[in-house]
Amino acid sequence: MFLELGGKSALIVLDDADYGPIAPYAAFGITMHAGQACALNSRLLVPRKDHDRIVEAVAAMMGRVRFGDPREKKTYMGPLISEKQRDKVHGMVERAVAAGATLVTGGEKVDPGFFYTPTLLAGVDPDSEIAQEEVFGPVLAVIPYDDEDDAVRIANNSPYGLSGAVFSGDEQRALNVARRIRTGTLGINGGNYFQPDVPFGGYKQSGIGREMGEAGLEEFLERKAMATILP
């Protein structure tokens, strides 16, 4: 049986990472499908000392995300599915700001249609609603951390465990951190895990079972067990 549910995936930027690729990866990642995808990295965990620098770069990149009519070739991001969903997203952003997060860019409804501007929230409390609950909109929450153990703790501080990513200048260090994250899939330094031969699914409240790969094929098999008493 396979059951794929929600996610609140964390993109962890370690202090030895090349920060250059982070901004486009984070900005265009969270705005894919207008944020309406379960596995998108909606939490960006960054070293506290470089929080402002990374936020500035991501905000600039979000400004380059073109939204509008999906039929236009230059459009990257379309609308949310309904007015109700857009109102939900906007309400969560407003409550995040009221709770102490900084609205860096976005946070606006755009008509006609159910468009919502790519939104970046900085200095987010890892225990707050915006960091714990799935938004399902183009909203990225930036959370500062103090050291590697703190980053792992924050990433695992979630009822979900679907996906995530780790960036580091040391591949082995990135792999070591990734192994400590309780999620079903992880991208290392931009690696794409979503392939036909790679099992996809989550831990905790992100579901049970796997699709794709050998594990996914086994979902379609019927097994027979037989027991006998030897003479």
Descriptive key words:
28% helix; seven-stranded mixed sheet; Aldehyde Dehydrogenase, Chain A, domain 2; single chain
Strand order of the largest sheet: 4-7-8-3-2-10-11
CATH class: Alpha Beta
Shape: globular
Assigned CATH architecture: 3-Layer(aba) Sandwich
Percent in strands:
15-25%
Along the chain, the helix and strand elements come as EEHEHHEEEEHEHEEHEEEH
Give start-end ranges of low-pLDDT stretches: none
CATH superfamily: Aldehyde Dehydrogenase, Chain A, domain 2
The separation of the N and C termini measures: 37 Å
Mean pLDDT, all residues: 93
Helix amount: 25-40%
Structural class: alpha/beta
Please name the CATH topology: Aldehyde Dehydrogenase, Chain A, domain 2
Assembly level: single chain
How would you sum up the major sheet? 7 strands, mixed
How many helices? The count is 7
**Number of DSSP E strands:** 13
Radius of gyration: 19 Å
Taken together, the total number of domains comes to 1
How would you characterize this protein structure?
The structure is a single chain. The radius of gyration is 19 Å and the shape is globular. 28% of the residues lie in helices and 19% in strands. The chain has helices at residues 22-30, 51-62, 83-98, 129-132, 148-156, 171-179, 213-218, and strands spanning 3-4, 9-13, 41-47, 102-105, 109-110, 115-116, 119-122, 139-145, 160-161, 164-167, 187-188, 203-204, 207-208. The protein contains 7 helices and 13 strands. The chain has 231 residues and is α/β, with parallel strands linked by helices. The mean pLDDT is 93. It has one domain (3-218): Aldehyde Dehydrogenase, Chain A, domain 2 (3-Layer(aba) Sandwich), CATH 3.40.309.10.
